[in-house]
Amino acid sequence: MWNWPRQAVKRHNLTKMWFMKIIDEREKNLDDRAYRNIQELEKYAENTQSALLYLTLEMLGVRDVHADHAASHIGKAQGIVTCLRATPYHCTRQKVFLPMDVCMLHGVSQEDFIRGKQEKNVRDVIYDIASQAHIHLEHARSFSKKVPVKAYPAFFCTVALDDYLCNVRKVDFNIFHPSLQRKSTLLPLHLYIRSWKKTY
After folding, report:
1. Number of alpha helices (DSSP H) and beta strands (DSSP E) in the chain
2. Which candidate, 50, 53, 47, places its Cα nearest to that of 151?
3. In this structure, how many other beta carbons lie within 10 angstroms of the beta carbon of residue 166?
4. Burial class of residue 127 in the structure, from the number of CB atoms within 10 Å of its CB (0-12 exposed, 13-18 middle, 19+ buried)
5. Is the pTM value of this prediction over 0.90?
6. How far is CA 60 from CA 18, 64, 193, in A?
7. What does the buried/exposed string (b/e) look like for 19-35 if buried means 16 or more CB atoms within 10 Å of the residue's CB?
8. CA 37, 72, 166: angle at the middle one, nearest 5?
9. Which pLDDT tens digit goes with each residue over 9-42?
10. Under a CB-based contact definition with an 8 Å cutoff, are residues 40 and 47 in contact?
11. C-alpha to C-alpha distances, 70 to 40, 45, 60, 66, 138, nearest whole angstrom
């Protein structure tokens, strides 16, 4: 079972370092503690989500510095959004992984999230974290003209990220709103449009 990474590296000429980063970062994350700050969350996202995107680019035959730069920011955005999306579930298990520095800035405790509070300061925490994901997506798109079109399929995950960030904004950053737990039936259409327009 554990031979598949070695086989994949050899067969597709992939960079072994990206596999090792993913494994190492996941092992560090096994202690189930909150991120100390937004930078720590971004580092985790870079070494997991971004690393997966680097490998996807290599599978597509893309080795380009601009594509890698986009992958770095998109991976960070994906890691942040994943953390947000999972928060209601984690709270039901008495766990909160949101960056502690952002929570402290707004005077919000982990207990506030576990109790499902929806006061403005709680929503301000979500706003700040979601804004950071949005910034990464905008940064990734700022040099899209330099990214080879061949790399775009690796970045179509941005469709789901945009969808979530748009929806959380519509409910005024209430992370516990039921609508955020529903599947978006329009995602396939948005994915098709993005693919047809050759954008990410």
Report:
1. 10, 0
2. 53
3. 11
4. middle
5. yes
6. 15, 11, 21
7. bebbeebeeeeeeeebb
8. 75
9. 777 678 889 988 998 998 888 877 899 999 999 9
10. no
11. 19, 14, 15, 6, 10
Tokens of residue 109, six digits: 């405790």
| Residue where the block lists tokens 């402290």 | 104
Token pair, residue 124, equals 């301000």
pLDDT digits (tens, 9 = 90+) for 101-156: 999 999 999 999 999 999 999 999 999 999 999 999 999 999 999 999 999 999 99
Tokens of 192: 């098709």
Tokens for 148, please give them. 């080879």
Cα separation, 174 vs 180, in Å, equals 9
For tokens 């520095």, what's the residue?
Answer: 101
Residue type, 38: I
Q: Tokens for 6?
A: 């070695």
